[in-house]
Design a protein that fits this description.
The chain has helices spanning 2-11, 49-58, 70-73; strands at 43-45, 61-65, 79-80, 90-97, 101-105, 117-121, 134-136. It has 137 residues and is of the alpha+beta class.
């Protein structure tokens, strides 16, 4: 799931700037109407929390999570350590980590979570965060 966008970018000429092609949170067909700001060759896929830490050290990583539960939907801040499933249904971007949690940017805008971010506890593969991470190459 999370590599689909990376692979699309690689096959279709590159990635536009968010200011040129804003996210709308709606279904539809991707457009090829702006100048590419970056290109990719594909995606490096891996699995497991140690590999996710290594990946985040290199560059931001896409991750798929189970974001269907009410605790995720209503997250407002703090370290997310609430039981959730591993039915991967939402792709997000892991951008950093501390010794206690992952720093993850969601696509739902700045009014959700901690100014658009969620801090997911490390060491539990919570919500399936380490099942299918990847980064662009």
């Amino acid at each position: 799931m999370e590599t689909d966008a990376i692979e699309w970018v690689g096959k279709n000429g590159g990635q536009c700037l968010g200011s040129d092609y804003p996210y709308t949170a709606r279904g539809g067909t991707c457009k090829k109407t702006c100048k590419a700001a970056a290109t990719v060759k594909g995606a490096k896929r891996f699995t497991g929390e140690p590999a996710l830490i290594t990946g985040i050290t290199l560059k931001p990583c896409t991750v798929a999570v189970d974001a269907g539960g009410s605790a995720w939907q209503s997250y407002k801040g703090g370290v997310f350590d609430t039981s959730c499933g591993k039915q991967l249904n939402h792709a997000i971007l892991a951008v950093g980590y501390t010794d206690k949690y992952y720093i993850v940017k969601n696509s739902w805008g700045g009014s959700w979570g901690a100014s658009g971010y969620i801090y997911i506890v490390r060491g539990k593969n919570l919500c399936g965060i380490a099942l299918e991470p990847s980064y662009p190459i």
